[in-house]
């Protein structure tokens, strides 16, 4: 008799028991499709064989954990959003708040977002007034972020004058200048299980919600609202939407920018 094969549900349960990472939080079709693609690449035709392969090989498990995170990121992604931030939101915060602004880039991937935030605030001559915490669960992405070295393709549609001013070149690599790097602190962090960073003036969590089920999105919104100061801002991705922001003490200000209007303790 051939060994029993597993379906995706059985794999998720075994994986959670082994690692503590709950794949049930993610949208099933998207996540199952990504895992099946990797199984095909690794020549493991069913979920039981694939799980046994991961459980028996720490390097394979590490590669898989990093593969699960979607590292699609580029500098100045969604130009209209950053234009509004530079012309209104950042300016309002800098005028209203005294001392350092605490900004959390949640799910920062390879670091393009937190470095973009730092560049945008330096253009406003306010680099000395910000502290950026950038977090992600993917160790490999964080290594890239900390190095601050990127290919031309990863700079996306960044304007040439920005590239000339804020990057040095090393062969084919573009390296973020030390002045920008020094205001960003990178941390390994699981959004679903680790404590949030409290008392934030702004939280960026862009293009992360779309991979989670609605109940997980609500869980994260509760946590982000609790981590924001009253009057602080949450910025999400252009493909994302909060259907009832008032449920989380938020009000929509512009496109994908929401402001916390009360001091809820989540």
Structure description:
This protein is an alpha/beta fold and 266 residues long. It folds into 2 domains: 8-68, no CATH class; 79-146 and 182-260, Rossmann fold (3-Layer(aba) Sandwich). The protein is 41% helix and 20% strand. It has 10 helices and 10 strands. It has helices at 8-19, 28-41, 47-55, 58-68, 79-96, 112-123, 139-147, 160-166, 178-181, 214-227, and strands at 101-106, 130-136, 149-150, 167-170, 173-176, 184-188, 200-205, 228-236, 250-254, 257-260. A 7-stranded mixed beta sheet has the order 6-2-1-7-8-10-9. Strands 3-5-4 form a 3-stranded antiparallel beta sheet. A hairpin with a 2-residue loop joins strand 9 (250-254) and strand 10. Helix 1 packs parallel to helix 3 (47-55). The longest helix has 18 residues, at 79-96. The protein is globular, with a radius of gyration of 20 Å. The protein starts with 7 loop residues before the first helix and ends in a 6-residue tail after the last strand. The mean pLDDT is 89.
